[in-house]
From TrEMBL:
GO biological process, one term: gas vesicle organization
Name listed for the protein in its UniProt record: Uncharacterized protein
Amino acid sequence: MHMAEREPRPSATRTSTRPRPPKPAEAARRACEQLDSLIVHETEGVSGVTRDEDGWVVSVDVLEVARIPDTTSLLATYEVHIDQRGELQEYRRVRRYRRGAADDC
């Protein structure tokens, strides 16, 4: 076959190889599950979910020291970074507070 007789190859359609990030509720659930597997304290809930360029940043509230009365228990907020696949990339404690304490405004 001569060069002139070769048919050009069809160009491959380029699709994004970047996976779609999970939705906010899924990112929050996965952040709690993955943080639970790394720390010994009990997660209480999620106080924030923010989208960033790499996935999600989830603020997870954790009971660190249970006390009686419950309003004197110590809690912490952990910032959990979840990537596009929903996998934990990093976490860190950003705040520690008494359950009954008001936020600084």
